[in-house]
Amino acid sequence: MPELDVILRGGLPRNRLHLVEGAPGAGKTTIALRFLLKGVANGERCLYITLSETVEELVASAASHGWSLDGIDLFELVPAEADLENQQTVLYPAEAEFDETMRTITARIEATKPDRVVLDSLAELRLLAQDPLPYRRQLLGLKRFLQGRHITTILLDDLTGGKGDGDLHSLVHGVLSLEQIERNYGAARRRLRIAKMRGSDYQSGWHDFALVTGEVLVFPSLIAEEHREPPAEGAVSSGLAGLDNLLGGGLDRGTTTILVGPSGAGKSSIALRYVMAAVGQGEHAVYFSFDETLETLSRRATALNLGVESAVQAGRLGWYRSSPSRLSPGEFVWQVRREVEDKQARIVVIDSLNSYLGTMPEEQSLILQLHELLTYLNHKGVVTILILAQQGVVGDVQNPVDLSFLSDTVVVLRFFEAAGELRKAISVIKKRTGVHELSIREFRLFPDGMQVGPPLLELRGILTGVPVYAGPSEPLLGLGGNEAS
After folding, report:
1. Other CB atoms within 10 Å distance of the CB of residue 107
2. Which of the four pLDDT bands, split at 50, 70 and 90, describes residue 464?
3. Phi, psi at residue 116, to the nearest 5°?
4. Do 278 and 189 share a structural domain?
5. Is residue 474 part of a domain?
6. Do β-strands 215-219 and 235-236 pair in parallel, antiparallel, or remain unpaired?
7. What is the C-alpha to C-alpha distance for residues 34 and 17, in angstroms, rounded to an integer?
8. pTM of the entire predicted model
9. pLDDT for residue 169
10. Stretch 192-203: mean pLDDT, rounded?
11. CDD domains under this entry (predicted)?
């Protein structure tokens, strides 16, 4: 689990006693097995002591991930109805004293002489002890027994005795807490944190993780200041002069642009225009779509003479179809980082923020995480384009959430009425990094490809109410014979 090692700033300290705690189903056994399998791969002796599951259950759990437990000594303490012909040593906890159980455990460790040990789980030991005093005394004795034997030990606890054992925390060297959050709809979200790691530096806070076939994927939370680079120079052009002029020359590198407007106004098409212009210049770009499939986007892009599908197939454009009900915020940030750090993506599009905000109900926390992500992308010199769909199509449209403070440039698109037709207008509200046009221009996608017309001087109500154009027809695209710029 290299990403967990990143959080731990190098990994679990060797020859220490660590606790992994979490409710049933949080992923404790899977993480413990992955820990031992890594030891086997390193040529170390590994021992798994189980009081809660049989060997058959452990083997089946490992097989579901495509893992083999060959090389791991499995020592089970099982109920009387277990298979007596099993090759592992069998003990009946219900019929034995707690101290005898602990002596059996230490004897097995002494006989195996392992480098790594997992004890699963402390809940059964608490039931055997029936009293906190002998329970703590025996665990302290286990800790002293392990000292000097060069063994890295993980204790598993399912927290059936409560939310946490403060006394137990004081005995161990490190504590890894796991949590599983059930959503009202969609996949459960798993996350972890390092509650304690004595004498070690580690990254605090919660980190999302996922259990997938064959692997435990950990997504370290992002610290933007650790990725600061020299300021990026230059701007990215769309290849459409009128659009670039409106934005004062294009989108500056290391900045965030938010495209705001009602559904169907052309936000995604503008983002695609900049993406494909960058791809055409040999740069890598990535498009994260929460709302639209690649097939529908490709058909629209083809009508705009933008070869999206071929760019994706050639690997020049990264495409992610993200499901808000299945994706955790940490996993999304990690996907962005891999495209930027591994594939050198220079443009990142998130379409749309409305769906992205649906990945987590704690909106304030998600906005803080988004702020950290945008700061990171700015430090990396990436052009970030965010798409925010407003509520409503015509009339008094409203923003579902105000995120303008997170962006360096704000572009607004609106529908307006002129000459008996529904048309589109585009304007730039702000640009922190330079001068931009204050004019409002007509914007059109079809039938002649993307076009931006001259300034509309007689347009009223673009910011409030229902925009209406009351001027002459010459400035309008397709009416006065004006060519798009």
Report:
1. 11
2. low
3. -130, 140
4. no
5. no
6. unpaired
7. 17
8. 0.86
9. 92
10. 93
11. KaiC-like_N
